[in-house]
Amino acid sequence: MAVEDSTAPKFKEQDLQLWQLMIAGSVAGSFKNMTMFPVRTLDQRMLHRSYSQRHVGIRQALRLVIQTEGPSALYRGIWYMRHGAMGPAQFVHFSFYDVSKNFLSTGNPNNPVVHVISWAFTAVWSYAVSTPVDMAKLRYQNGFGNYKGVWDCAKRVTHEEGISKF
């Protein structure tokens, strides 16, 4: 049986202010996405026509990327993703979640319906932030269009294909 430490501080979500929740959500979401970035890169490569025609698995895709493009290709576009999408998207997600949960709860913050509606509402807003940058990052990451970077990709797509492409 575990012994409770009476000197340890007790943590409650209610003790945090909104800005603290937003920063914590941004850091946690960014760390998760940056950690999984190489896996997402390999996933995108395996979906790409030149890889999918070879029917390669994840190990073969990793070997091909490292041999043909170098190890840094696994992280191509990561800083754009971090600063352009994931940090701000997580920031929006956690702030909208907390505000909508408090607004909808009407005195019962543990109502599961409130949590579901709040998460759905916030997902829409966080994807509105992350999707355009993610699309540009994927094009840059996969080498479509010979872009200088994600922002160059976003500018050219907007100019050549229109804002609706995002």
UniProtKB/TrEMBL annotation:
The keyword Transmembrane applies. It is a multi-pass membrane protein. One of its GO terms (cellular component) is mitochondrial membrane. Keywords: Membrane, Mitochondrion, Transmembrane, Transmembrane helix, Transport. Coiled coil: none annotated. It is found in: Mitochondrion membrane. Solcar repeats lie at residues 16-103, 110-166. GO terms for molecular function: ferrous iron transmembrane transporter activity. One of its GO terms (biological process) is iron import into the mitochondrion. Belongs to the mitochondrial carrier (TC 2.A.29) family. This is Mitochondrial substrate/solute carrier. It comes from Arabidopsis suecica.
